[in-house]
Amino acid sequence: MKNKDWFTEWFNTKYYHILYKDRNDNDAQLFMKNITEYLRLPKTAHILDLPCGKGRHAVYLNSLGYQVTGADLSENSIQEAKKFENEKLQFYVSDMRAPIEQSYDAIFNLFTSFGYFDDDHEDLLILKNIKNALYKNGVFVFDFLNATFVKKHLVTEEVKIIDGIQFDINRAIKNGFIYKNISFFADEKQHEFTEKVKYLDVKKMIDYLENVGFSIEHIFGDYELTDFNESTSNRLIIVAK
Ligand SMILES: C[S@@+](CC[C@H](N)C(=O)[O-])C[C@H]1O[C@@H](n2cnc3c(N)ncnc32)[C@H](O)[C@@H]1O
Q: Whose CA is nearest to atom 20 of ligand 1?
């Protein structure tokens, strides 16, 4: 049997959510409030959060009055997110490499949910799907890590203890990817996962987006929406149409 891709397995575990629990709802809500105000998105807008994880951005966007759809590959995350569904908030399981069936006023790809595939064509396919699913004048918000900043400040070894679990983390940049190896003992077993995200800097991201027909409206460098600076920003947030 073919091994599952790392992103199919790791994001579907409870341990992923434990490790990242400090990247909390406050960050997500601050960002969503700022970006919807910046975009002046009318409350009638239909937003797709792709991929949405357990729906922390989608649920908040819905509480602001928007119609929101969230989609993710992780069945466990969608099962959790579905608990929040209402007539203006829906979730479903989907692979972002598949064409998107509906059209949207805005599509958000948040918190480094990109760059998982070896082949650049798969990255481009996702961006094409997003472009095709936007109404004319629809907007794409793309929130990725700032690869240049990550490289400059790479913490190669780190130990985090969360909910009584000791996560031993090792990071490396090689062969065009940023690797984060995570090993820990939990539920009477030793576990090991490796996150592998493509080293995509701002120039490459702009090339990708322009290649599929997007034009760049603005680039921010953090969730407070400070302008992007390649050497000091911790995020790369591109608004494209
Ligand atoms: C870093 S998490 C971020 C999730 C969410 N945006 C958030 O901020 O909580 C990345 C998400 O991408 C999802 N994912 C990975 N590969 C995917 C794919 N091919 N199609 C759809 N979702 C995918 C994972 O299941 C995971 O929930």
A: 95
Does ligand 1 lie within 6 Å of residue 147's CB atom?
A: no
Gap from CA of 131 to ligand 1 centroid (Å): 18
> From CA 74, how far away is CA 135, in angstroms rounded?
27
| 10 close to ligand 1 (CB < 6 Angstrom) | no
CA 204 distance to own-chain centroid: 17
Torsion of CA 117, 121, 123, 129, to 10 degrees: -130
Cα of first residue to Cα of last residue in the chain, in angstroms, is: 41
What mean pLDDT is predicted for residues 42-66? 97
CA of 213 to the centre of ligand 1 (A): 24
**Confidence (pTM):** 0.95
